[in-house]
Design brief:
single chain, alpha/beta, Rossmann fold, four-stranded parallel β-sheet, three-stranded antiparallel β-sheet, binds arginine, arginine-tRNA ligase activity, ligase, Arginine--tRNA ligase, Arg-tRNA-synth_N, cytoplasm
């Protein structure tokens, strides 16, 4: 049952036939306050066709409508207000959720279509930054949301494992590093050489020439250069893997930039064939001035290829390999121009599917309002953030529930979950400051609050013992109404989150549902042994199902006790 559909049907029977169900559906509003009903229909647009004042039309239509299935239908001015029949509504929605369980809200909009999601994509030999965390968790959540909508996402970690920075790293390592030191703490020490390289190169520009030469060697297949590169890459990857394991994120592919080394000639050939390449100061570019974009730099003076060249090859490879219905790139807003250029060049090459490429941009995580930068060494190390969050979670658990079993494991789920939830509750384009104390609170707009609400609801169910949910699930407590309606809205929320690639829609929804349930819990005696007990418990059960689905879609765990 979909109550909005019920409203559409009731209206369709009395409205002029030329107004389609789809149009009616779009016109229906949700009143701000419950005294105006659950849904409202404005009659203004009918004034012309029906040659009457809107409030007259509303009154007339209400007179004609069949009230069956509704508590009442009335008119207020130009609006028709629909009040759903609470008993029938509750019975239908609770039965549906209990029947569907984890599948509640599933839709088949995607029809199995492939959607590569370029996500996380950190740079080898550098720590994973908070920006990469954003890409990882946003991408992971979008993948889960799209799966529930019937798509087949392919999670691709487009590792930054190629480029001139590796030339710098090799120079730095050879000058100041040692095998032992690198093996002891790979990423931090590699970063150390990199930072030192930049500092020293300020006064010694010849270092930059050396770095360029080493990168050129890599591109030409030099043995020493490549074996150092392979070593850096695999050490870095196993460090990253630790974080992915903690976040519970898996990838379908680790084809990074280097994977496209042998696929770029074909791109350059096509660009040449189509007469798109131009020479500019010895470099090869695609001129995009007609589109008000700076030129796409395809090949440098020394023949080295660039970031966008590899992205062109990657885009084409993904289209050929996955026959995607859309292709997503979860990358910070600062690369908006890059993705505009990428799409523009693909379009010029004659690939109309470039329109199916979407840059899923996101804002920065700042530190005291300042941008974080690896080059200047001003980074928040993701691992430290996670560790601190887990420690804080542990402290609060010790206070609240000292006898809890598996305290460490729960603290891990709560601490890591808090960081992830905080990231996802912000609209992705917004930048936000990161304050750990705030993020790990058990009250307020936090992940732990949602987890805690779910755990509390589960404990009510444990107290209730065995309950037989077959039978009448009519629930007309006015306190339950808000929660029931939120549960019923979930499928719409899900499809909206997918349409705009916005996990925050789910996070905000989970907070709302948790809050509404806590209000219900405060006002009603759920476990009292009377006729309404089973229905009330079925609401509690449904809340846990929907909260767990929501947390799951965000990649946040839902501990049973905390
Ligand atoms: N490695 C890049 C960075 O850290 C992000 C790569 C994004 N993906 C892509 N296909 N360009 O900035």
């Amino acid at each position: 049952m979909n109550s909005k559909k019920q409203v559409v049907e009731a209206l369709a029977k009395v409205l002029p036939a030329e107004i389609t169900a789809d149009q009616i559906n779009k016109l229906i509003e949700k009143p701000k306050t419950s005294d105006l009903g659950d849904y409202a229909f404005p009659t203004f647009i009918l004034a012309k066709t029906m040659h009457k004042a809107p409030n007259m039309i509303a009154e007339e239509l209400v007179g004609k409508m069949d009230q069956a299935g509704f508590e009442k239908i009335v008119n207020t001015g130009a609006y028709i207000n629909f009040f759903l029949d609470k008993a029938a509504f509750s019975d239908a929605i609770l039965k549906e959720v209990l029947k569907e369980q984890d599948d509640y809200g599933n839709q088949n909009e995607g029809n199995g279509g492939n959607v590569p999601i370029d996500m996380s994509s950190p740079n080898i030999a550098k720590p994973m930054s908070m920006g990469h965390l954003r890409s990882t968790v946003i991408g992971n959540s979008i993948a889960k949301i799209l799966t529930k909508l019937g798509y087949s996402p392919i999670k691709i970690n487009h590792l930054g494992d190629w480029g001139t920075q590796f030339g710098k790293l090799i120079v730095g390592y050879k000058m100041w590093g040692s095998k032992e030191e690198v093996e002891e703490d790979p990423i931090n020490n590699l970063l150390k050489y990199y930072v030192r390289f930049h500092k020293e190169a300020e006064d010694k520009p010849e270092l930059d020439d050396e770095a360029r030469a080493w990168f050129k060697k890599m591109e030409d297949g030099d043995k020493e250069a490549l074996s150092l590169w392979t070593w850096f890459r695999s050490l870095s990857l196993s460090e990253f893997q630790k974080i992915y394991t903690r976040l519970g994120v898996e990838f379908d592919s680790f084809n990074g930039e280097a994977f496209y080394n042998d696929k770029m000639d074909a791109v350059i050939d096509t660009l040449e064939e189509k007469n798109l390449l131009k020479e500019s100061q010895g470099a090869e570019i695609v001129d995009l001035s007609d589109l008000d974009l700076s030129p796409a730099l395809i090949k440098k003076t020394d023949g080295a290829t660039l970031y966008i060249t590899r992205d062109l090859a990657a885009a084409i490879y993904r289209k050929n390999t996955y026959k995607f219905v859309k292709s997503l790139y979860v990358v910070g807003s600062e690369q908006a121009e890059h993705f505009k250029k990428l799409k523009a060049v693909l379009k010029m090459m004659g690939y109309d599917w470039a329109d199916d490429i979407h840059h899923i941009e996101f804002g920065l995580i700042t530190n005291g309002g300042k941008k974080l930068s690896t080059r200047k060494g001003r980074v928040i190390l993701l691992e430290n953030v996670l560790n601190d969050a887990v420690d804080l979670a542990k402290k609060q658990i010790e206070e609240k529930n000292p006898d809890l079993k598996d305290k460490d494991q729960v603290a891990e789920s709560v601490g890591v979950g808090a960081v992830v939830f905080h990231d996802l509750k912000n609209e992705r384009r917004d930048s936000f400051d990161f304050n750990l104390e705030e993020v790990v609170r058990f009250e307020g707009e936090t992940g732990p609050y949602v987890q805690y609400t779910n755990a509390r609801a589960l404990s009510i169910l444990r107290k209730a013992g065995d309950v037989d949910f077959d039978g009448d699930l009519t629930l007309d407590d006015p306190e339950a109404w808000d929660t029931l309606k939120l549960i019923q809205e979930f499928p719409d929320i899900l499809s909206r989150a997918g349409r705009i690639y916005e996990p925050s829609v789910i996070a905000k929804y989970a907070l709302k549902l948790a809050k509404s349930f806590n209000q219900y819990y405060a006002h009603s005696k759920i476990l009292t042994d009377d006729a309404g007990r089973v229905a009330r418990l079925s609401l509690v059960k449904s809340v846990t199902i929907v909260l767990q689905i929501s947390l799951g879609l965000l990649g946040v765990k839902a501990p049973e006790e905390m």
